[in-house]
Fold this sequence. Notes:
- This protein is 32% helix and 29% strand.
- It is built from six helices and nine strands; from the N terminus they run ββββαααβαββαββα.
- The chain has helices at 77-80, 85-99, 104-107, 125-146, 177-180, 211-236; strands spanning 14-18, 26-32, 35-44, 58-65, 111-120, 159-167, 170-173, 185-192, 197-204.
- It has a five-stranded mixed β-sheet with strand order 1-2-3-5-4. It has a four-stranded antiparallel β-sheet with strand order 7-6-8-9.
- InterPro entries: ExoRNase_PH_dom1, ExoRNase_PH_dom2, ExoRNase_PH_dom2_sf, PNPase/RNase_PH_dom_sf, Ribosomal_Su5_D2-typ_SF, RNase_PH, RNase_PH_bac-type, RNase_PH_CS.
- It is an enzyme of class 2 (transferase).
- Keywords: Nucleotidyltransferase, RNA-binding, rRNA processing, Transferase, tRNA processing, tRNA-binding.
Amino acid sequence: MRPSHRSADELRPVTIERNVARYAEGSCLIKFGGTHVLCTASLEDKPPAWLRGQGRGWVTAEYAMLPRATHTRTKRESTSGKQSGRTQEIQRLIGRSLRAVTNLQALGERQITLDCDVIQADGGTRTASITGAWVALHDCLKWMHGRSIIKDHPLRDHIAAISCGISNGEAVLDLDYAEDSAAETDANFVMTGGGSLVEVQATAEAAVFTDVQLLAMMTLAKVGITKLIELQKNAVA
């Protein structure tokens, strides 16, 4: 039995609440069980300096965990003067994931920044961030389209992410912290609404894993991401 008493293919309760930040062009609060992430999308009417004059835009992301998102207070990275390697890795993953389903040419010479701030962490913060950031980006682009800033909606597809793992020799979906910290293998899958893979991160923690186990985790991930994309569709309908 899993610590959360869920079946192997069962997600934690997931909710998506839109328009939670008054001033952002797009925003949502996404909850994966005990993991809560505030996602906002902010529009700048210019691209990054290295992209100017090329007629296309950019989508990027920043990720942060609030000091008491975890059991003990963690120091703000801004006070230390640099971001951790983990933070940099996660925000690059979020940016890559959102760009994979965005027509940057249709965006024009503009930049959208997705800020993903973890209010409360209980495992799967990066996957919740990606799934919620898509909703914030969607609403930002809808805001732009409604004001004739862009002619066409640049989003090509949905995108969502979920964690999987091997726990007690069994493939399981959507690990919380208690399960993640003890899992033999930890993996994250990012997939489009059409079922294509954007990124797979899989690491042997306590034991190596086989190709059969990897396929089992991917099968579970597809089930979970299908459910998450349905929640996205319901949220933005």
